[in-house]
Specification:
The protein is of the alpha/beta class. The protein has two domains: 262 residues, Rossmann fold (3-Layer(aba) Sandwich); 186 residues, Rossmann fold (3-Layer(aba) Sandwich). It contains 19 helices and 20 strands. The chain has a nine-stranded mixed β-sheet, with helices on both faces. The protein has a six-stranded parallel β-sheet with strand order 17-16-15-18-19-20, sandwiched between helices. The protein has a three-stranded antiparallel β-sheet with strand order 10-12-11. A hairpin with a 2-residue loop joins strand 6 and strand 7. The chain is globular. It starts with a strand and ends with a helix. It binds adenosine-5'-diphosphate. Adenosine-5'-diphosphate binds next to helix 1, strand 15, strand 16 and helix 13.
Length: 480
């Protein structure tokens, strides 16, 4: 099968979150299963610098494309897959992030940037680059940035199936009527049953309405988004299309996230050599200025520092447990308010709280390997990857029971402990109190070394690999 994977980010070229990881791992898993997969990304400046000269450049024939839009082709990219870049100097060749010019500042022309990207993808699919012999059976679109692709495909009645994956329903690609006109979108799309959404229009809605299949990244999140508050205003729409909405849990890349081989950590270990893990803990304590202590439970956090991730509850729990025997190590970047609160706490309590603001792949791995517990008290979580990495590293996750967190972590209840199925700690109520209580429950169990070791081994035995999820996507690609 020939698959085109359309995405606005892909590790290691450009990544702001889980979508980047998925865009690296899923296409490779599909390729390993014997399929032809190519990626198509916007040609951001930083990506072009990383890739160097393309193997080929193609003109695209489409009256709605800007004059400077063209397609570059890299046969062997850092992704290990063929890659197309939609290039446009005026839209993508600039400093700054893929979506934002600075923190919290979306690019003023995002509607145009991603509408042109979608048009270019569809142009490739319809054979608009005449010299490209490859034809695609299916296009797999991801998040709002790609939402117009299924809509254009349907309008052109192209024989290409489309799957649209929602990685986070809260990001809807909303723009006003002026932008709609500027983008020269078909008039009939300004309609309740089409792209129009409460006086604006939504790229995400376009994907939901027109794709053959709509998937989201965990079964629980697929149910949660049918209703408020997680429906974000799209509950009725999603219920209307529920026959084509499917939840497929993300896998993780166990080549990159394996404590037995991880090149970022000094002391390798597996289920049978867990005694080595403590050396990674000492290493991280040393590197971040925390007090060296084998017996103090160390709680890790690697995350975007935003409300979704329950950052206010983290701050509260840190304050509440200050006099108790526990340490915290945080890596992340995001909302200034949380960055400042965390930094202030760390400054005042530097032996027990360490905070690093920024993005650091190496430290992220070090924290996974070195901590005893990993905090992910998200208000909502479409899938979440870090809790799955934590399981693999025997760093027991503390999670709120929502979305992918509910689908991947089994609470250490008395029953689950007895049955040998527990892998972490879950709480239900969305509050600082519930999270702090769960932190204390985890710390109490940490002192029971034998039970703890067993829990770690059970966590490390879990597997959420891509082969399984890729198979589920393939079944959708193949269905008419
Ligand atoms: P989301 O996509 O909502 O940000 P996920 O848990 O699905 O959350 O994925 C986040 C990914 O980004 C993980 O691979 C995580 O390790 C990585 N990550 C997040 N923040 C940082 C950071 N500050 N430094 C390094 N990696 C980070």
């Amino acid at each position: 099968m020939n698959i085109l994977f359309a995405t606005s980010e892909a590790f290691p070229l450009i990544k702001t979150g889980g979508l980047g990881d998925v865009s690296y791992s899923l296409p490779r898993a599909l390729q390993e299963m014997g399929h032809q997969v190519a990626l198509i990304l916007p040609g951001y400046r930083s990506v072009k610098h990383k890739l160097g000269r393309p193997d080929r450049r193609y003109a695209l024939a489409d009256e709605f494309l800007r004059d400077d839009v063209l397609l570059s082709y890299y046969g062997h990219s850092a992704l290990g897959l063929p890659l197309y870049l939609v290039e446009s100097d005026s839209l993508y060749d600039r400093d700054g992030g893929p979506y934002e010019s600075g923190p919290g500042e979306g690019w003023y022309d995002n509607g145009d940037r991603f509408a042109q990207y979608c048009r270019a993808v569809v142009c490739l699919l319809k054979g608009g680059a005449a010299e490209i012999p490859q034809r695609f059976d299916v296009v797999h679109c991801n998040d709002w940035q790609t939402g117009l692709i299924p809509a254009f495909l349907q309008r052109l009645a192209l024989p290409v199936r489309s799957v649209f994956t929602i990685h986070n329903l809260a990001y809807q690609g909303l723009f006003d009527r002026g932008t709609f006109d500027y983008l020269k979108l078909p008039d009939e799309w300004w309609h309740l049953d089409s792209l129009e959404f409460y006086g604006n229009f939504s790229f995400l809605k376009a994907g939901i309405v027109y794709a053959d299949w709509v998937t989201t990244v965990s079964p629980t999140y697929a149910c949660e988004i049918m209703h408020e508050p997680l429906a974000c205003g799209m509950g009725g729409l999603l219920q209307h299309h529920r026959h084509k909405v499917v939840g497929i849990l993300n896998g993780v890349d166990y080549d990159a996230w394996n404590p037995a081989t991880d090149p970022y950590i000094r002391f390798h270990y597996d289920q049978h050599s867990l005694q080595e893990k403590i050396n990674n803990k000492l290493e991280i304590q040393r590197n971040t200025g925390l007090r060296l202590s084998k017996s103090t439970p160390l709680i890790g956090l690697v995350s975007r520092l935003v409300e979704q991730k329950g950052l206010d509850w983290i701050v509260s729990a840190m304050e509440a447990t200050l006099g108790e025997k526990v340490q915290w190590v945080v890596l992340g970047a995001g909302t200034q308010q949380y960055e400042r609160q965390l930094q202030a706490l760390a400054q005042a309590n530097s032996k027990v709280i360490s905070v690093t603001i920024g993005y650091d792949e190496s430290l992220a791995h070090g924290i996974e390997a070195g901590c005893d517990l990993f905090a992910m008290p998200s208000r909502y979580e479409p899938c979440g990857l870090n809790q799955i990495y934590s399981l693999r590293y025997g760093s027991l996750p503390i999670v709120r029971r929502t979305g992918g967190l509910a689908d991947t972590v089994i609470d250490a209840s008395e029953d689950a402990l007895e049955q040998g199925s527990a892998t972490g700690f879950c709480f239900e109520e969305p509050s600082a109190r519930a999270f702090t209580e769960t932190v204390r429950r985890a710390i109490a169990l940490y002192r029971k070394q034998k039970t703890w070791r067993k829990l770690q081994q059970q966590a490390m035995d879990q597997r959420f690999d891509w082969q399984h999820s890729a198979q589920a996507y393939l079944e959708l690609y193949e269905q008419e």
